[in-house]
Structure formats: structure tokens, C-alpha cells
Fold:
Amino acid sequence: MTAGWLAPTLRTRRLLIRPFSVVDLDAVHAYARAYPAERYGSWLGGNTPSDVARYIADTVARYGRPPRCDLGVTMNGKLVGGVAFRQVWVAPTQLEVGWVIHPRLAGQGVASEAVTAVLDHIYGAFPDMIRAEARVRADDTAGHRILEGQGFVREGVLRRGGGDVDADLFGLLRHDRVRAVAAG
Structure:
């Protein structure tokens, strides 16, 4: 990761993916509440208004200081989720990606579009990056499809890596990404 790094703003056909700001508190709280914590856990440490405020404050404070970047996903001018990447290995550079999209948009390709944009960005912005990885609950077939559609390969199981249940670990090597994009 490079010095002087800035959190990106990305555009796709339908989405604007941008840094979070304090005005996003209510929207983040809305999609954080939409997920049952007993099923998906909470990347926020909870889903109360104070948990969301702490998450937004921590996220904004991290901008400009890699290795972690959480970005808001907006559609039609409304924040509908988030997508993130973080460094998991320094040398050689490897990043983990993750996402959360409001469940009312399930099945509309929003998560896939956001993940595609982030992968395009990180593979372009970090030429020394050799690998991306992601983990999803073992029973999250939609998450598996999103990752496999990007060229990720299921590499193994993280026992209890999804909280109370197992999670599947997926990996995507740079040359696999090039092939997936070319196959298109």
C-alpha cells in the first residue's frame, strides 16, 4: 500500500461507491438493523445507533491510512450498503474484500456490481497485489455465487469463522482475475 493513499470514489452503471460520512448514520443503521445478528453477526460490533455512530467515526478516521477502507454503496442517491477491503498480508500484498447490501435489494445484482468495482479498483491501484480473499458463511449460497462469478475459488472452511457457524474462505489470484474479466 502506498503513502498518500486516498479512499476512492467509484462509479458503475447504477452505483456510486464513496467514502462514508457522518450524514450516513441513519442509512447505515437501517441496513445494519435489517440483518439478524444471530445469523450474520455484526461487523459493527452491534446495531444500535451508538454502535453505528462509533463505526462511522472509526471508518472516517481511518481514511487516508490504509490498510482498511470501508465505502458506502449508493443507488439512486440513497445509501444501500457498504463494500470494504483491508490488507491481510503486507508482503506480498493481499487484500480481503467484503460487502453488505440492504436485504430488500437481494437478487438485483447490487452486491456483485459493488464487488466488481472494488476488485477492478484494487487490482488497478495496487499493482503489487497478488491475491484477494473473502469469507462467507458456509450456508450463504448467494455470497458463494457472487464470489464465483468474480473468479474466486473456494479454498477451505474456517470452522466457526461465521460466528456460530462455519465460513468458506475464497481466494482470487491476480491471473485468475484477468481471466475472469476477459471471460466477462
